[in-house]
Write a structure and sequence with these properties.
Layout: H1 2-16, H2 27-48, E1 54-56, H3 62-65, E2 68-70, E3 85-87, E4 112-114, E5 125-132, E6 141-146, E7 157-161, E8 171-173, H4 189-193, H5 214-238, E9 244-246, E10 255-257, E11 259-260, E12 267-269, E13 277-282, E14 287-291, E15 297-301, E16 305-308, H6 324-329, E17 389-391, H7 396-401
Antiparallel strand pairs: 1-2, 3-4, 5-6, 5-8, 6-7, 9-16, 10-13, 10-16, 11-12, 13-14, 14-15, 15-17
Length: about 400
């Protein structure tokens, strides 16, 4: 009888271990498994999500009830390279006489200014060591290390505005002086450097086959095929986010940022978080047309340089500080309404009770506010006076229609 019971138990154990039979687990094991599955599902949802991803907090206090921050798990949490920073001496918006010349500034946490390389004059490959937070700008910054073993000091390390999508371990390169010789074997680089829009051409060899034999034509076709492959490889290696190229070499439709206005100058346009510009055309002369973030199309010299890609941290504009104290930590003082001031402090001030004396809204200096146009039109004013502007930024109905 005992032997029969043991055989019956062994048969039941074999049956429970069968592939088609569900395993019986304890309550703790089932709960731990469900927790792991929930974490994995949540991580998969976050990684596959395409809309804005923000970090929110449980409202245990009013200061964090509306706090919302973009998720940036790739940001370095340590301190910056001290040699690439300088101390920031705050003035609180005061001039040398101690009077407020810039309103709504003062206080804030102590900061150090990060010195960024906007020129990118050092050639060669640079490795991205990490992505860092910069308190002085909305975009993130990337720490680069020069692969050249002979580079010393400031040429070894540098900060740049981080393009969107770049991460630690990637590599960037500066082609400010043009494509170097021998960069792509079998490709005539000297001809490319002098050609406008060279990277968007399909062929870089002479296609004339008149008065040639069949063998010469076959040899020319083979050479043309190899040149096309070399040109495609050149596009792949150069048109990467973070690389610097002259505008003459950038194909039409490419998204760029950190655009210089002088051939030997630093990048001055399109440097804030999430901003970008687009190359829309090349003139036969020495200018390239670039559409800026505002929609304005302007001319830029083709010898000027730009960085491929758009600026990082595009969700910065949708963040919510949550409380006034965080604005004070950033060095921003309150903005007082004019109707809450005295008559000698603001045109809207004074009166018995709430009154702005039945006037049109104006600023503290008497300028028209809330819709009043203050920009002088015509060639004598700022509008239409810049000869480099091909098309003004859209305003009014044209802006709303876009």
């Amino acid at each position: 009888m005992l032997a029969a019971l043991r055989a019956l138990r062994r048969g039941a154990e074999k049956l429970t271990r069968a592939p088609g039979v569900p395993q019986v687990r304890s309550y703790a094991e089932s709960k731990a498994t469900l927790r792991k599955l929930a974490k994995k599902r949540e991580l998969d949802e976050v990684m596959s999500r395409t809309q804005a991803v923000f970090k929110t907090y449980k409202p245990v206090s009013p200061g964090i009830r509306h706090l919302r921050r973009p998720l940036n798990p790739h940001i370095w949490e340590g301190r910056p390279v001290v040699q690439l920073t300088i101390a920031k001496r705050k003035t609180g918006g005061r001039n040398a006489r101690g009077r407020i010349t810039v309103r709504h500034r003062g206080g804030g946490h102590r900061q150090r200014i990060r010195t960024l390389d906007f020129k990118r004059e050092e050639p060669g490959v640079h490795d991205v060591v990490r992505i860092e937070y910069d308190p002085g700008r909305s975009a993130h910054i990337a720490l680069l290390k020069n692969r050249d073993p002979n580079a010393q000091g400031m040429k070894k390390w540098s900060y740049i505005v981080a393009p969107e999508g770049i991460r630690a371990g990637d590599s960037v390169q500066s082609f400010r002086q043009g494509i170097p010789e021998g960069f792509i074997p079998g490709l005539d680089v000297s001809r490319l450097n002098g050609t406008v829009g060279a990277l968007e051409a399909d062929e870089v060899v002479d296609e004339s086959v008149m008065s040639r034999t069949a063998e010469e034509i076959q040899q020319e076709l083979e050479q043309s095929s190899s040149q096309s492959l070399a040109l495609g490889l050149l596009r792949t290696l150069t048109l990467k986010p973070g690389n610097v190229l002259q505008l003459r070499l950038i194909p039409i439709g490419t998204v760029v940022h950190n655009i210089a206005l002088a051939p030997s100058g630093p990048g001055v346009l399109v440097r804030s978080a999430g901003s970008s510009a687009q190359v829309v055309g090349h003139e036969a002369s020495r200018y390239t047309h670039v559409r800026l973030q505002s929609g304005e199309v302007r001319k830029v010299l083709q010898d000027c340089c730009a960085t491929i890609g758009r600026v990082s941290n595009p969700l910065w504009k949708n963040r919510n500080l949550g409380k006034a104290g965080r604005a004070r930590w950033l060095g921003r003082r309150p903005s007082v309404r004019g109707v809450a001031m005295n008559a000698n402090d603001h045109p809207h001030g004074g009166g018995r009770g709430k009154s702005k004396s039945n006037k049109h809204p104006v600023s503290i200096w008497g300028w028209g506010a809330k819709g009043t146009r203050t920009r002088k039109p015509g060639p004598k004013g700022p509008k239409n006076s810049n000869k480099m502007v091909v098309r003004e930024r859209p305003r009014g109905h044209s802006k709303r229609s876009n």
